[in-house]
Design brief:
Blueprint (H helix, E strand, L loop, with lengths): L3 E6 L3 H15 L3 E6 L2 H10 L4 E5 L7 H11 L4 E6 L4 H10 L3 E4 L4 H38 L2 H8 L9 H16 L7 H7 L4 H12 L3 H19 L4 H7 L5 H12 L3 H13 L2
Helix pairs in contact: 1-5, 2-3, 7-9, 8-9, 10-13, 11-12
Length: about 280
């Protein structure tokens, strides 16, 4: 995977170099970092190449941070932005966030605080890249299916009215979808999100899954999530709340209700009972 492009901009050279060193320390293994001392040069760089993370001062001569934000709002909607402020300039921060969403950090903060802000932005970049990779992987799978089956069969997979009796092509498509669900069971999977990946309507996907998958799509998703939950409960020390979040549940309570409805015990009871069996009690 290619490295991210990170741009650090501050008209005070010492501060710019200091922030650049913290970026290097925090995410240097993943990023190509460039430090600039001019908003004008930074805008030119944004015009020339894709930047994943911009850390910029707001108050600079000629081209200031607000102008960089305005350019980013129009041309770099996916770029992460961290504002570098001399102190908590709430009026400036409010004005900046009206241009486009961004986080901020006070330059005089402790290094640990600044590094944490950088890591938080890095995690959002990782998540965004992961989602793009997922969609690209799914598209490649669809292209492979198109090569396997005739043009008429592809039309059958895309348009419900053209479906005839169950045959091997439909069954294979459902297996591809099942495999996708197993690989992404830690995500917030819904009929709508899966349908978008495979270019179906949610209603159509749910119907063919029930016909050829022999169960409801929502039930299959839940079974895969609970299977992973059971593994995490017995193989890791993660809290129930952490497991619920990692599997895409909106709350630990929703996770516990689904777990108990399916298995008859709470997640805590399942973990405790497994521990007792392991110890031979």
């Amino acid at each position: 995977m290619s490295k991210w492009k990170v741009l650090v901009v501050d008209d005070e050279m010492e501060i710019a170099e200091y922030i650049g060193s913290l970026v290097e320390e925090t995410i240097g293994q993943d990023a190509e970092i460039e430090v600039l001392y001019s908003g004008t040069r930074a805008k030119k760089r944004l015009e020339e190449e894709k930047v994943d993370l911009l850390l910029t001062d707001l108050v600079m001569p000629v081209t200031d941070g607000f102008q960089l934000l305005e350019y980013a709002a129009e041309n770099c909607p996916e770029m992460e932005v961290i504002l570098l402020t001399a102190y908590e300039e709430f009026e400036y921060i409010y004005r900046a966030n009206k241009i486009r969403p961004c986080s901020y950090v006070v330059k005089a903060e402790k290094e640990s605080v600044i590094c944490r802000k950088i890591e938080e932005a890095a995690n959002r970049i990782r998540d965004s890249r992961s989602r793009r990779d997922t969609v690209e992987h799914a598209r490649k799978q669809i292209e492979e299916v198109k090569q396997i089956f005739s043009e008429e069969k592809v039309k059958q997979m895309i348009t419900y009215e053209e479906y005839g009796e169950s045959d091997q092509s439909e069954r294979q498509m459902i297996e591809i979808i099942k495999n996708y669900i197993r690989e992404h069971r830690k995500e917030d999977l819904t009929a709508a999100s899966i349908a978008e990946v495979f270019h179906y309507s949610p209603a159509y996907l749910s119907k063919i899954f029930r016909i050829y998958g022999k169960e409801k799509l929502s039930v299959y998703i839940m079974r895969q999530k609970l299977s992973e939950a059971k593994r995490m409960l017995v193989e890791t020390d993660q809290t129930v709340q952490s497991i619920a979040g990692s599997l895409g549940y909106q709350s630990p309570q929703a996770f516990a209700r689904a777990f108990r409805r399916e298995l008859g015990v709470t997640p805590q009871e399942y973990r405790r009972d497994y521990g007792r069996r392991k110890e031979g009690l």
